[in-house]
Each structure stands twice: as structure tokens, then as C-alpha cells.
Design the sequence.
């Protein structure tokens, strides 16, 4: 062989090796790994394609992230005090956390759901439920602020919530912990037949206002999750229940004895009609209804009394039970409204019910039993199909709008993609670890966006750098646009996201508010210009209406405050530009700072305890002279005669 | 002469566009203002490009000791300019009508144009003088007193025409729709003169 021949052979071998290498890497990752990075890469200055709203679980709040990047954009305070902005600390927002039990500084936020029109996400509001002190909140998607919170009386453990019907007519709240209704002192062991599980229906007005319309006083099972009918099943609501055993102790064993529990199918349109015609009776029930007004920048809490309670047995043809294997958790309805997926969390199969079969069974009075007078339909005659052996511990299902369903399996820690109608399993992907809920933007509506899926995991372990015993929960993003799910990225989430709601960014971002119009500020203590700034004494109360603008307060020197006074600091931000908040804090305040948005007024109380000259300052680096944005309040002895005096630049 | 007169009428009527559209536009760019901040100069006053731009420009300018931007009643120009422009438009239209019905000499068209040019130059001179004053007559207690390389106080005067760097801002100052309409209108009056003149000459020949 001559030199050239050897050379050629060498080149050929090289090509062969290179090809092999390529083949290997292809088969390993399923796709070029660089393309995965590109799929989640949002270039600096560019925007994500989707908003994702993650419930914060025990944080009580919502965190907003962008998809596909997974970048956290904001935390919206909802049920928990939030010193970052002063939510729940400022005089204006304290009423938001008022309940019939008094001021509750914390909540357990579970299931966010975005308002809909004709079954499609419309991006007006997002709702979220609170489990511990049963409540539902409505958050504006223009301001990303909590605008309204309504408490649900006679209930406990509001878990089957806050799911909206397809024209945002109603939102529901369930009762996960059956309780005496009305509450009374009685032996726990006499629970059976005595406890109740009321399901609350809250109507939503065109302006978003919530109203507790009625409560269905259901038998005392634990109503866990719910989903409204969609499309053809619009007008119905489905609730899963467990503990049909009505056990009251060692629940993990005693509530797992029945082979089947129930899905409650509620024809809510029929119940609404019944109530309209004077049905139901008003029973006791005290609840707080808290509304935030964007013009006065102030929330008011109204304590309401009484609720219409409905005995489900008395509404002809409105409430039925469908048997479902083994302590179900998730209850999900596909975009067509035909299939109701029940996830028996201790079952190895997934039961899918047919809405048409349910209707037929009701029509034929095909009842196998009754539970406290509520007809129980037959399992066999309502089932549409069973997804056989998909995994262990099914919890939740969402849809891609292309005829596929995606179900999470907590115990086997995976997401399984399967086909509606044929029930065949198409793909499975591991999650890290022990996935609870998953979310496809729009995936619980008539029109899922079907491009990404996020798995929200309960266990993090080694996914990120260790941060001591407590870890943020992990989420994984999958591309579901192809036949197979493709894991793209992994990112931490705040608190414990029990669920999330996602929406295409363009449905929200154009209408996102940039600042509040100062001229529309109707706060009674707003100083809308520096000349309106005042300090007034009313007995032991001192009201200071102060302005903030880059880079000073007006007034910035105040005298005449005394030890023992209750000083209300009403701060108005005079800026009218995007993203120019000013903060305020003062030494010795037993509350948080407040972050005041342009055009807004917020108030904190300061009760000076010692004589002296005490500084206050702006807490948000607002400008080049932010450090100079400060002032002093002189505090004199309680019996002194120091007159009220306030100045800016000695004028 | 008929078509020349009609063009004269159209040309001088285009001045009326200044009552609707701005004369000049000043746009400021800085890293903190990704979508810009700026103002339109109308015959009768200043207007922010966005609702609160004037207030926000004043907010920025207070650091370097510039006065607040004038309100409509704080400058005589904002009440005089509309009268001058309105008057010139009416005058031009009358001259055009006289050309149409009385066949006055097209030299009147030229005279109107020369007067308009003189007034225009005076207007620009006045505008520039105001900007010099606005950009250099600074509060002695200004927060930031900037000097140029020679130690002289920095001028914050925006350019009359063109683009200029001023500290962290890039200022663009250009005529706006109203000015373009006026310029085109003035060009038309010249066309009217030229056409009328040619016609007169051809009649004489």
C-alpha cells in the first residue's frame, strides 16, 4: 500500500469513528442536548412565552415564573403577611387577612385557577384557595395584587377549590375535613352520620366580585378535589371524596378500608335554579368578606352572617355519587367534557368515566345503592375505560388538547402520557422526586396550549446544591409538543406548589399596569402634591400625610410628636413612571416596611416609646440620591409642649 | 394661473396641520428608559410622548438644576405662534383666492413665501435661544454640577436639529409631522409662484 492509500484508509476510519460517536450520542439523549438548552434559553432582555402561577402551599402566596426559562418573576402575597411590600402589615391591607377568627397572618394556598370565557383562559383574574381557614382569593392580573378574599363558613379544609366554571360563573370550595355543621361540642367518636362536608358555590360578578351563593350540605366524607364540567358537561361539577368510611382516628388505615369511595357529580345549574326558586334554608355561618379598592388603595373587611344551605336530597336529580376505587385524589375533566378521570391514589389502575354514560345511568335510574339518600350510580355502567397498570399512586391529570392525557404518579415518581379513548400508554418519564400535581398551560380548560408540561415535585433531595435540611421543592419542565415527552430543565420553586396555572404571556402582558394614576388616588390621607403634605394631631393620634419623590420626603423634619402617641404615617408616592417604588421605614416601628407604588398611598403605624430624634428613610434604591432620601421625627416627652411643626428645606 | 392659485391655497392651508400635529419632537434615550421618554412641541404648548413624560423629564432635570418645562401660559410663544401661523395660513389662502378670481400677480405668492421664511427663521432663532437658556441657566443649588473638559459648566441644551449625547442620555431632536406639512406647504407655494410666473411669461410672449 502506498502512502496515499494509507492516508485514505486513515481518513475513512476517522469518518467511521466520528459517525459512530454521533450515533451514540443521539441514542443517549434522544435529541441533541444543545437543542434542549436552546429550548429553555430566553436571551437577556427577551420575555418568556408563558406565565406560570405556582401556589406557594404553606407560604400562603403565589409565585410567578416565566416558562420555558423557569425564572421567578414575582411573589404575590395572598394569604400571608409579606414584609417585603408591607402586605398584611400596612393599615390598608391588614383587613385582607381578617377572618371570623380574627386576624390570621398566614394561609395554606393550594390550587390557582385562571378565569375563563367559553372554556378558554381569558387572563382577567387568578383565584386561589386557602385550606386551613377556608377562603378563596381573587388576584387581578392587571396589577398582580390580591383584590378580594372571601371566607367559607361551616367548612374545614378547603382543598377541593378554587376551580372555575367555563364562563367564570362559579368557583367552588369543598370540605376536606368533615365537621359538625353547625359546629357544636360533641364527642368525636359520634362523627358518623353527624359530621357534614358542605360544598360552597361562590358566584363571580362581571367585575370579579365574589358572593357566597349557597352550600350543598353533603354527607360527611372528605371532599378532596374537584373539577367543573367543560364543553358538553358544562353545568356539572365533579368532586372526589375519601373516607367514606367516616373514620375519625388513625385515618391512614381506617379511611382506606372501603374498596371504593365516591365521586360526587353535582348538576350545579339545577341547584342554582332550585335556589332561585326559593329553595334551601338560611342557616348560621359567620364569614369575612374582604375587598381591596384600587382607587382608595384600601381594603375593607365586612363580617357577614348566614348562608343558604341545601340538603342535596331535596334537589331532584342534582346530586349523585359515582363509585371510584381506593381513596381518590385528583378529579379531572378532559377538554371535550366527555371524560372524567378519577385517580384512586391507592389503586393501580386509572378509572375514566363517560359523561354520556353518567347521564344515561341517571336517566335510567340505574342506581346500585344510596348514601344518606344520595343515589349511587353503578361503576360498571358509568366507566368509559381503565388505564391498566399505568404506575403507582396516580394523583392528577391534565391534557394537551391533542387527545392525550398526562397523569402524575406520586409513588412511582413519574408522569405517564396516555391516549383518551384507547387508554393505551404512550410514554412515561421519571420526575425528581415524587410528583404531586402537573400543569400544562391551559391544560384544565377547553383549549390547552399543549407545548410545555411542568411537574411539581414534593421531594427534592439531591437535585440542587444542598441548603441544609430544608429544601425548596423542585419542578421539571417537559416539552410535550412531540410524540414523546422530553425533559428540558429542572428549577426550584418557592414553598410547596400544590398546583399551578399557566397562560400564554401575550394574554396578560400588554394590559399589565405600570403605575397608579395619582389623580385617581382617593385615599383619604393621600397628599397628592408636596403642598398637600400635613401633620395633624387628634388627641394621642398623629396623622402624617407625607409625599415621596426622587429623592426626598416632604416634609422631612417633623417635630411635636410625643412618647405614647400613635403615629399614622400615610405615605404617597408622587412618581408617575414605571417601576419607581419608594419604601419607608422608621426605627422602632413594630411592623414591616412599606413599599409604595407610584401613585399609591400606604400607611404604617409607629408608636414611639422613647424621646429623641429618630430617622426614617427610603428602603428601595430609587435613584442616585437614594441614600439622601431620609428625614427625622423629633419625639418629645409625653407631657411636653413641643408644637407640631413640619418642614422641607426649612420652609 | 388657476392651477397655480389652487396650489397656493393648498400650500398655505397645509400650515393648519400645525394645529393638530406637533412641530418638533425631542426624544431621550437612556438605559433606564428602554422605551424612551420624550416630548412633542406643539404650537400651543408641550406634550409628553407618554402621559407623564413631562413630569418625568422634570424629575430627571431637577438633579442638574434645570427649570421645569414651561406650561402653555408660561411662555408668550405658545399664544403668539398659533396667531402667526393661523394668520399666515389665512393670508396665503386669501392671496390664493385673489389669484384664482382676481388674477393678481404670482409675485404675491413669492412675497408670502419670503415673509413665511423670515418668520420661520425668527421662530427657529427664538426656539434655539430658549433652549440655550433652558439648558444653561441652571439652579446654582443644583444637586449635580457637571463641567466639561475645560472646567466650564456643562450645557444641557438639546440640539435644535440632530442627535446629541447629554450625560447618560442620547437626545434626538427632529421636526415632526406638523413641520413637515408646513415645509411641504411652503414648497407648494413656491411651485405655485413658479407655475404662475411661467404662465404670465408665456402670456406676455
Sequence:
Amino acid at each position: 500500500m502506498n502512502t496515499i492509500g494509507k492516508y485514505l484508509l486513515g481518513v475513512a476510519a476517522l469518518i467511521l469513528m466520528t459517525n459512530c460517536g454521533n450515533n451514540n450520542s443521539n441514542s443517549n439523549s434522544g435529541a441533541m442536548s444543545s437543542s434542549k438548552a436552546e429550548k429553555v434559553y430566553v436571551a437577556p432582555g427577551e420575555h418568556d412565552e408563558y406565565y406560570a402561577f405556582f401556589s406557594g402551599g404553606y407560604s400562603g402566596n403565589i409565585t410567578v415564573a416565566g416558562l420555558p426559562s423557569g425564572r421567578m418573576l414575582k411573589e404575590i402575597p395572598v394569604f400571608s403577611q409579606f414584609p417585603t411590600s408591607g402586605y398584611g402589615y400596612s393599615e390598608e391591607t391588614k383587613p385582607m387577612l381578617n377572618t371570623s377568627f380574627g386576624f390570621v397572618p398566614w394561609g395554606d394556598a393550594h390550587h390557582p385557577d385562571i378565569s375563563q370565557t367559553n372554556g378558554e383562559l381569558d387572563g382577567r383574574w387568578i383565584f386561589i384557595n386557602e385550606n386551613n381557614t377556608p377562603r378563596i382569593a381573587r388576584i387581578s392580573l392587571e396589577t398582580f395584587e390580591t383584590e378580594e378574599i372571601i371566607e367559607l363558613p361551616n367548612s374545614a379544609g378547603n382543598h377541593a377549590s378554587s376551580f372555575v366554571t367555563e364562563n367564570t360563573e362559579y368557583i367552588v370550595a369543598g370540605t376536606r375535613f368533615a365537621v359538625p355543621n353547625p359546629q357544636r361540642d360533641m364527642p368525636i367518636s359520634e362523627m358518623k352520620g353527624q359530621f357534614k362536608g358542605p360544598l360552597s358555590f361562590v358566584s363571580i360578578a362581571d367585575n370579579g366580585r365574589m358572593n357566597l351563593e349557597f352550600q350543598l350540605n353533603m354527607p360527611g366524607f372528605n371532599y378532596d378535589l374537584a373539577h367543573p364540567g367543560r364543553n358538553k358537561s358544562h353545568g356539572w361539577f365533579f368532586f372526589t371524596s375519601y373516607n367514606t368510611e367516616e373514620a375519625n382516628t388513625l385515618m391512614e388505615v381506617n379511611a382506606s378500608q372501603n374498596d371504593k369511595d365516591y365521586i360526587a357529580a353535582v348538576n350545579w345549574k339545577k341547584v342554582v335554579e332550585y335556589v332561585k326558586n326559593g329553595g334551601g334554608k338560611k342557616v348560621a355561618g359567620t364569614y369575612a368578606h374582604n375587598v381591596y379598592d384600587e382607587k382608595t388603595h384600601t381594603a375593607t373587611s365586612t363580617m357577614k352572617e348566614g348562608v343558604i344551605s341545601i340538603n342535596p336530597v331535596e334537589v331532584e336529580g342534582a346530586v349523585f355519587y359515582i363509585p371510584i376505587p381506593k381513596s381518590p385524589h385528583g378529579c379531572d375533566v378532559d377538554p371535550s367534557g366527555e371524560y372524567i378521570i378519577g385517580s384512586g391514589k391507592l389503586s393501580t389502575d386509572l378509572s375514566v368515566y363517560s359523561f354520556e354514560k353518567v347521564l344515561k345511568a341517571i336517566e335510567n335510574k340505574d342506581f346500585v345503592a344510596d348514601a344518606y339518600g344520595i343515589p349511587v350510580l353503578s361503576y360498571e355502567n358509568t366507566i368509559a375505560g381503565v388505564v391498566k397498570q399505568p404506575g403507582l399512586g396516580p394523583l392528577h391529570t391534565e391534557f394537551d388538547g391533542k387527545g392525550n392525557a398526562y397523569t402524575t404518579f406520586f409513588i412511582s415518581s413519574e408522569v405517564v402520557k396516555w391516549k383518551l379513548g384507547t387508554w393505551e400508554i404512550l410514554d412515561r418519564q421519571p420526575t425528581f422526586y415524587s410528583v404531586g400535581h402537573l400543569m400544562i398551560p391551559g391544560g384544565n380548560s377547553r383549549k390547552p396550549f399543549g407545548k410545555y408540561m411542568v411537574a411539581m415535585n414534593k421531594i427534592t433531595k439531591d437535585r440542587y446544591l444542598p441548603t441544609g435540611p430544608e429544601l425548596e421543592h423542585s419542578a421539571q419542565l417537559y416539552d410535550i409538543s412531540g410524540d414523546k415527552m422530553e425533559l428540558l430543565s429542572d428549577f426550584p420553586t418557592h414553598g410547596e406548589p400544590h398546583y399551578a396555572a399557566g397562560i400564554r404571556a401575550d394574554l396578560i402582558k400588554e394590559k399589565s399596569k405600570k403605575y397608579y394614576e395619582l389623580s385617581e388616588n382617593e385615599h383619604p390621607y393621600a397628599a397628592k402634591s408636596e403642598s398637600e403634605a400635613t401633620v395633624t394631631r387628634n388627641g394621642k393620634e398623629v396623622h402624617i400625610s407625607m409625599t415621596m419623590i426622587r429623592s426626598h420626603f416632604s416634609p422631612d423634619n417633623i417635630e411635636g410628636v410625643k412618647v405614647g402617641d400613635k403615629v399614622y404615617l400615610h405615605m404617597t408616592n408622587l412618581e408617575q413612571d414605571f417601576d419607581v417604588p419608594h419604601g419607608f421605614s422608621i426605627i422602632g416601628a413594630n411592623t414591616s416596611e412599606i413599599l409604595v407604588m407610584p401613585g399609591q398611598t400606604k400607611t404604617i403605624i409607629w408608636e414611639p416609646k422613647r424621646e429623641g430624634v429618630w430617622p426614617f428613610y427610603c428602603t428601595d434604591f430609587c435613584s442616585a440620591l437614594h441614600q439622601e432620601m431620609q428625614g427625622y421625627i423629633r419625639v418629645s416627652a409625653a407631657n411636653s409642649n413641643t408644637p407640631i411643626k413640619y418642614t422641607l428645606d426649612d420652609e | 394661473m388657476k392651477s397655480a392659485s389652487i396650489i397656493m391655497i393648498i400650500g398655505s392651508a397645509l400650515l393648519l396641520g400645525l394645529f393638530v400635529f406637533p412641530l418638533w419632537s425631542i426624544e431621550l434615550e437612556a438605559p433606564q428608559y428602554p422605551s424612551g421618554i420624550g416630548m412633542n412641541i406643539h404650537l400651543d404648548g408641550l406634550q409628553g410622548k407618554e402621559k407623564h413624560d413631562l413630569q418625568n423629564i422634570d424629575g430627571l432635570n431637577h438633579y442638574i438644576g434645570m427649570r421645569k418645562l414651561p406650561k402653555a401660559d408660561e411662555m408668550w410663544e405658545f399664544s403668539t405662534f398659533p396667531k402667526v401661523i393661523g394668520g399666515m395660513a389665512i393670508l396665503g389662502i386669501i392671496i390664493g383666492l385673489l389669484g384664482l378670481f382676481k388674477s393678481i400677480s404670482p409675485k404675491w405668492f413669492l412675497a408670502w413665501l419670503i415673509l413665511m421664511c423670515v418668520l420661520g427663521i425668527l421662530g427657529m432663532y427664538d426656539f434655539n435661544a430658549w433652549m440655550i437658556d433652558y439648558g444653561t441657566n441652571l439652579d446654582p443649588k443644583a444637586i449635580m454640577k457637571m463641567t466639561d473638559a475645560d472646567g466650564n459648566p456643562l450645557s444641557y441644551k438639546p440640539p435644535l436639529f440632530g442627535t446629541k449625547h447629554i450625560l447618560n442620555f442620547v437626545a434626538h431632536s427632529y421636526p415632526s409631522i406638523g413641520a413637515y406639512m408646513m415645509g411641504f406647504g411652503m414648497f407648494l407655494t413656491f411651485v405655485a409662484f413658479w407655475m404662475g410666473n411661467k404662465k404670465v411669461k408665456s402670456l406676455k410672449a
About this structure: The interface with chain B takes residues 549-550, 575-577, 624-625 of chain A (CB under 8 Å). The CA atoms of residues 123 and 508 of chain A lie 6 Å apart.
